[in-house]
Amino acid sequence: MAKRLVIVGGGxxxxxxxxxxxxxxxxxxxxxxxxxSHAAYGLCGLPYFLANVVPEIDxxxxxxxxxxxxxxxxxxxxxxxxxxxxxxRQEVHFQSGDGLDVLTYDKLVLACGATPALxxxxxxxxxxxxxxxxxxxxxxxxxxxxxxxxxxxxVVGAGYIGLEIAEALSSxxxxxxxxxxxxxxxSNLDDVIAERVEAEVRRHVEVRLGxxxxxxxxxxxxxxxxxxxxxxxxxxxxxxxxGVRPGSALGATAGAATGPHGALMVDASMRTSIPNVYAAGDxxxxxxxxxxxPTFVPLGPAANKTGRVAGTVAAGGAAYFPGVxxxxxxxxxxxxxxxxxxxxxxxxxxxxxxxxxxAVGRSRAKYYPRSAAVHVRLVHTVDGHLLGGQMVGTxxxxxxxxxxxxxxxxxxxxxxxxxxxxxxxxxxxxxxYEPVQLAAxxxxxxxxxxx
Amino acid sequence: MAKRLVIVGGGxxxxxxxxxxxxxxxxxxxxxxxxxSHAAYGLCGLPYFLANVVPEIDxxxxxxxxxxxxxxxxxxxxxxxxxxxxxxRQEVHFQSGDGLDVLTYDKLVLACGATPALxxxxxxxxxxxxxxxxxxxxxxxxxxxxxxxxxxxxVVGAGYIGLEIAEALSSxxxxxxxxxxxxxxxSNLDDVIAERVEAEVRRHVEVRLGxxxxxxxxxxxxxxxxxxxxxxxxxxxxxxxxGVRPGSALGATAGAATGPHGALMVDASMRTSIPNVYAAGDxxxxxxxxxxxPTFVPLGPAANKTGRVAGTVAAGGAAYFPGVxxxxxxxxxxxxxxxxxxxxxxxxxxxxxxxxxxAVGRSRAKYYPRSAAVHVRLVHTVDGHLLGGQMVGTxxxxxxxxxxxxxxxxxxxxxxxxxxxxxxxxxxxxxxYEPVQLAAxxxxxxxxxxx
Lengths: 451, 451
Hints:
The structure is a homodimer.
Chain A: E1 4-8, H1 12-24, E2 29-33, H2 46-50, H3 65-71, E3 75-77, E4 81-86, E5 91-96, E6 99-104, E7 107-110, E8 114-116, E9 129-130, H4 135-146, E10 152-156, H5 160-171, E11 175-179, H6 191-202, E12 206-208, E13 212-219, E14 222-228, E15 233-235, E16 237-240, E17 244-246, H7 249-253, E18 277-279, E19 286-288, E20 293-295, H8 300-314, E21 328-332, E22 335-341, H9 344-349, E23 354-362, E24 373-381, E25 386-394, H10 402-411, H11 415-420, H12 435-443, H13 445-450
Parallel strand pairs in A: 1-2, 1-7, 2-3, 7-18, 9-16, 10-11, 10-16, 11-12
Antiparallel strand pairs in A: 4-5, 5-6, 8-17, 13-14, 14-15, 19-20, 21-22, 22-25, 23-24, 24-25
């Protein structure tokens, strides 16, 4: 009789796990239980759907459900809301259209994703208060935008998702106010980089920093957004983008060990502390290669990769996930901003004797059209051990440049190595010295001792 | 009395050496002897000057001569043509405006660059036959273009310089024929990639492969371009782009050891085999990190870096150049094409048990505007040792992506490591799996054994 792999969650991690398991073992019974009625959507694309840069929501799907069911033979079930695990009996108990149901498993993958961390304020459940994390909710907001019902919006949270949403709404002609409890935008960047981002955001929308949401009150004319330390705003819609919490409750309640941020702890093969139970995606902590410690980084690439590893291993294959280095990139209006490794703030908090070296280079040969400034910050120890980097530039100039630093962190290269790298050069694409190399020249110990 | 550093050549390597030496030792007497009357020009920009993408030739200068002389205190002399070295007496003998002259040196840096390898055919010295390697010659061709005197051009050589020039001339409305002795364009790429490039070139200009230049004959109506194995062409101008030879004669005649292609042999600190004589730039061989052997790669980044190392060491500092991995990128009309490490052909010729794995990914999330195909070829051993990579795509999509492979080669990462890299992702800039990772999944040994 075929063994059964049950996967809880039909997001990127869950569907990656299902597909990987199918590749390893074509005879395996692979069941995906998804609480909603959508699978394999690229949630990172939702801001671009709001902006109408992506006209149709279904464009965000990796594959349609029929493809998983028919071409890949995956038993993908919608509206199947898992309520409880019984690890001793290897059972999942779930609510489906037919009432309560039970499935036994040989192997289980928890890919429950993450849920928005909502501020506990009055009015947060108003139906014009949104989080852009789900397909149905995003479709509802998009319909309001398309119908011309959104003139004013307040976005709570100035992290990268909040700024993507602010840009999307602004591009639809909405008057946007961004509200952030911290004293700066993008607190996962160092000040000097975040200030560049803040200036760009202020060119397009209103920004209120150090301001906490107190209450939302429905009025005739809209929603009164009551703020701590700032005058109230009136908005037609409010979008909450104050981060996410790992969907670890199902596993934790069944006894799985959790770590930072309450996310599930897994080994490099995505095993939880419960036998035959794996976990992947935004509900787990992964290894941070720079610190060597578990970290909660709910981003798409790790969700896909950990899902693939969990599915491979659960199906009897061998795979492991070495971890992340904390790479992220975001488009903020005309700017692009990237980071990898640790910021200076993070490195100091981790106890490193860390320093930052900044340099401004060019994206192309200085004489070539569209050559623009690229600001690089390297974070490193005084003896040239690389800890991280940040970059800010225009257009497409940053996203793939930060990858040079990401690979360097994976490989343990030092600041001196960066200066020597044989990176691609041609006047239309790059200057003879990449911006990251100018920063490396300034940072490397040998130059310091020679000067 | 101040010690004297003499540098032969005012190109990228020579001026990098001069500036680096000045930083290390502010009291050093730094003399640069340049045969022409230009210094520190970015020769890679010449095709864009022809195309009028760069209107003024002086935009290609890193700095004007006065800057080197006044701000950096470098004795930069033009029209100073070095004829002979006397290593025993530490003298350079040169022709200057005043006749023959002699300078003694404490340290000498040879940065003589490279010269075009001209086919030995009749008519090659016609004044409408150009090589795009020098400022004055390029200015003369540009003036002919600006005056509308160039309707038809033949470009001999379909390497990256030949194709850049073909594109530049075509963009000026010139009817271009590209002639190449080898059976394909860009013989430094594998067939599968070169064919994509060839198709793009053929969309814009005529291409004749496997066709050797036999003679150039001046007629009333233009230059008759006589070809082996192809009908003749008539052209108003002919541009020769059949590669370069290292300018190693000065050093070699004085007894400096040479290696592949006749280029000067240097150690990692740019020392030649003659005491107190260093060399840098397009006249030297450098270490190829993948093969561990000396290689002749006359490209801008290595010229700048080796110049910097030679100048630093000659002035008493410590520096070394670990070598290159063979990275190059070029814009060819709408395409961009990059390479690093070894091609499959090169790897097999080097004796590696090499394989190639091809994959086609996307430049951005598939639903995001301007998402386009990126073809990646990985070259690797069967057990996953990375030897090189090639990429072809549109616009800016390739140049900085090839750097991921370049860094991986520097660091000795394997194919399996590539699949695990935490590379930047955001829908406007990248898909969740980079094209290089799709190729890595297909190539890595663990997947092979599992399937």
